[in-house]
Fold:
Amino acid sequence: MKLLRVFFLLTVVFIPGLFAEAAFDEANKLYETGKYAEAAAAYNNLLNSGNKSAEVYYNLGNAYFKEKKTGLAILNYEKALKLSPRDADIKYNLEFAGSFIKESAVEDTVTKLLNSFYYYLTLNELCVMLALAFFALMGLLIYRLFRKDELSYWFTFSFSVIFGLIFVFSVLRIFENENTRSAIVIEPSVEARAAPLETNPASFTIPEGKKVLILNSRKDWVEIFLKSENMKGWIKQDAIAEIMP
Amino acid sequence: MKKIYLFLILAAGLFAAEEVTLSAVLDKNIVEAGDQLTLRVSVTGSGTPPLKVPQMNDFNVYNGGQSTQSNFSMVNGRISSSTTVNYSYTLSPKGPGKFTIPSFTVEHKGKIYKSEPLQVEVIKGGSAPKNTAPQGGGNTPLSSSGEIFVQVTLNSRKVYVNEPVIMSFGLFRRINILGQPQYSPSDTTGFWREDLPPQLNYNKDGYSVTELKTALFPAQQGEFTIGKASLVCTVPTQGGNDDFFGSFFNNGKNISLESKPVNITVMPLPLEGKPADFSGTVGRLNLTVALDKKEVKTNDAVTLTVTLAGSGNIKTIAEPKLLLSDEFKKYETVSEININKENYEVKGAKIFKTVLVPRKAGKLSIPAVRYSYFDYGEKKYKTLISNPISISVTQGQKEEMSYSSLPSLASPEGVKVFGSDIRHIKQTGSFSYGKHLFYRSPVYLALSILPFIIWLALLLFFKYQVSKEQNIAFFKASRAYSRSLKCLKKVSRDLASKKQEKCLGELENIFAEYIGDKINRPAAGLSVSDIKSILAEKIKDRDLADSAAGLFEELHFNRFAPARKESTDISGLASSIKEMIIKIEKAGL
Structure:
């Protein structure tokens, strides 16, 4: 009875991983034989079963790109980048797919550099770093309860500065994560309206693959904001997909 | 009608050189079933993009070849060039009815240009009004006066599309003509013309004949009429009068001479034996393929020259296709035309030059060039095949070397990009089941707070410990005075009943404990020098400290000196201890 329980536990822990590995290889084979639609479906299955992985999102993005679904490709590259923000391949393909949409405002190099610095770590990595810095700081403080020497004083000083910086950084990122909802337009040239009404005339169109911020949602409409163009409009909910890995 | 169209095409070509204009023209809009239509499509523009031919299911379509005209104009120092490509197609309707020929399209620089769709009505044979009515044979010489006449003759009345026809315009005369005659040539719409100079003079049947030859190349199939050619010349009023004065003063009269129009049948190229790669070219040709260098280095250019020489309409010779591998980088082919009109025949060569750059070293081969054309002399299709050419390529100078030797020049070609695509998929994935955010998890928060709690607990514990110690000392210090006085009273009361020795020890203890409590130190370990230094430091009164130390020393001495025991005044000592304690208390210890 006990043995059975152990076996069951092992199955629960290991089999999903093994299954995911096999399914991933299967989907990759489909991709490599040019069956992009089937490959995309296989990657989606894998993701729907709860296996979140930057690689799967990236490969899914590739499959969609080959299928000429630029919006969905960009969406999945963005998701992959959230999980693995330093991956050069993901960045390259995101940029490559992005070059297919006609951007009216192109990010300058400084903004790009700042962004890549700001998003260099994932939120989880940042949290781990924050915890480690806090551990070190607290350890030093505890040490100083017993012994107050000069070396430990300078260590404590520098670690409090480091901790303070990481703390501010983390708080900014956590706030951003909690309060901003970005999405990608997944339908070709979506018409944005000034009000969430079908009868309202379109005020501008958004190309497929464009990143938008969701401000509000009402029934099947969402109010979106274009940062670089500084424009607001209402579009149908199903024209966009949120970047939520 | 045709003229107007032609003019429109030309005008469009001139005025809209930057744009691409496209026009499709039919020779007739009503046709009998079984008859044939000629469709001409002209593409004019700065480039010559390929023409997309729509599906025409109601007709059998025959390609009649293509011709290219280039036009350079310089207006106010700006040079514009336009090229007109004429395509001709022969359509034979499959059945009667009304049909629409869909638009021809051309894509140029991302724009799509369309021609107007055309309507055709195909009627059942017999009653269709022909627009080319048969006219009397123009071959027989007819003269207006018998003395002077013109005639147009053709060397053949039934030719294939693009086969050369020599048209001769002859002036036959028995009389002199005065001055320069004015010649207006025949209307040869539907043909390419090449004038064949020089004019030919000979005598025939007593006539003095002046002949002008022109080569015609029919651009499309069908029945054509070579229009009348006319000549206005001045002849003497009295024909053949040799009178000196008469001829001298006679200004003569103007007469207008016209030739009869001549019919010609242009046949489409035969269908049987038509090679798949037929280029549309008609002529009698030879093919030579040459390469200017046989040994080159990589990234050096070589020129491949393909020459098609022979007779026929040299200008319309289509470009041969080069089947080159990726080992060569191929640049655009430029062509030049040499035309030679000796012996009243259009001969010449069209030379196609292509610059090739070998990309890799080794023995590379340029495959054989195949060229299919229609030989009008033998009336069949022919395919010319050249020999393949091999070229040995040695590795050219390395990029790094050119960097070091020519630091000011950038390397001619670094990484060569042929096309860009997304990067390939990843083969291995790291999976985490239901990845979530750490900062939301209570475990993370608890773990993060844990060291803080440890620190806080330790801090509080130490604080408590310190405060507790401090409390004891304060308590002892505050109670030291009253306690010592109380003890002193007790000692003096017990003085009678107790031994002297014991009392002395108690007195010393009282004093030591008082000082020890006050300075938070155990009384047992106090020495005279300790008391001296601590008291001097704490009460800032050296005399008092000295006297206190002296008293302590005396007590000590009395206790351990039994010889003096009997003489010791214990009550006096007790009172002096009391005084000292009061003094020290007042000094603020």
User: Anything to note?
Assistant: Residues 2-32 of chain A form the longest helix (31 residues). Chain A has three domains: 2-103, 123-179, 182-242. The interface with chain B takes residues 16-17, 20-21, 24, 28, 31-32, 50-56, 58-59, 62-63, 65-66, 83, 89, 92-93, 96-97, 123-124, 127-128, 130-131, 134-135, 138-139, 141-142, 145, 170, 174, 177, 245 of chain A (CB under 8 Å). Residues 123-179 of chain A form one domain.
